[in-house]
Amino acid sequence: MARVITILNQKGGVGKTTTVVNLGAYLAYFQKKTLVVDLDPQANATLALGVRHAERETVYHALTGEIDVKSAVRATSLAHLDIVPSSQNLSGALVELLELPDRNERLRNVLDPLRDEYDFILIDLGPSLNILTLNGLMASDEVLIPVQCEYFSLEGIHQLLETVDLVRKNLGHDIRISGALLTMYDKREKLSREMAREIRKRFPYKVYDIEIPQSVALAESPSFKRPVMLHAPQSSGAMAYEALAREFLGLREEPARDAYDFSKYAPEEVKSAPAPETKIFGEPEDFPEPFLLIDFTLENPDE
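The structure assignment produced for this chain is given below.
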């Protein structure tokens, strides 16, 4: 049976989707069959993994009973890593699910047929608390909490733990806290170090040993529609998520990094694809609207 894990923080911009995509990639690298479930209407995990899907074969259509969830599962560019994609249609589920008698258990019922096919199922949620959040929590065995090393994230932890406790008490689901993951950590900044120390001191559950650093490679890899291990495997962000996966799986031995051949874990069409040029944004045709380039040059530098 798969371990079903929701990656959740009610604060936005703390690295939830980044963690789902890259932890999932490294679990797959370590030969663990992994499924990402994109339960965020923004569909960032779907975009970050470069998955093209049929218009009516998404997690929304599985939740509403229009299709069987197995027909919505899509392979990614990494072997052993699949995804149930999202789309903006999922915003409609916020209203539609409220009218159903099993509204809080829809996702759990949808995912039950897949639990025997995977080792891990990772659920990516948006930053708000709504019916989709409750579905993610009710479908999960445990919660992994990314926490940015800054003050407001520290203040938000208490509210998040209260939410999980309400699910336990009011909905009768014995979900556990897998642990907290420190993200966007900058060891050069005193505040970042102090916040990390305070979180490790005050958080009542496990805090993972590894801190996920601020990393250009992590920030730009979604624009290449691939996890960081296929974009910049030697970057600090890639090494951090590899270390997280090792800690997650209880693996202690260090890799022979110079012997890595990440391409062998990708399907044939990805192996033969040319490596992308070093750039932060994609090609102009990748964007439906033209970029607005803002000139921040001051007319009067003294102002």
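Interim note for the steering committee: The longest strand covers residues 176-185. Residues 294 and 300 are 17 Å apart (CA to CA).
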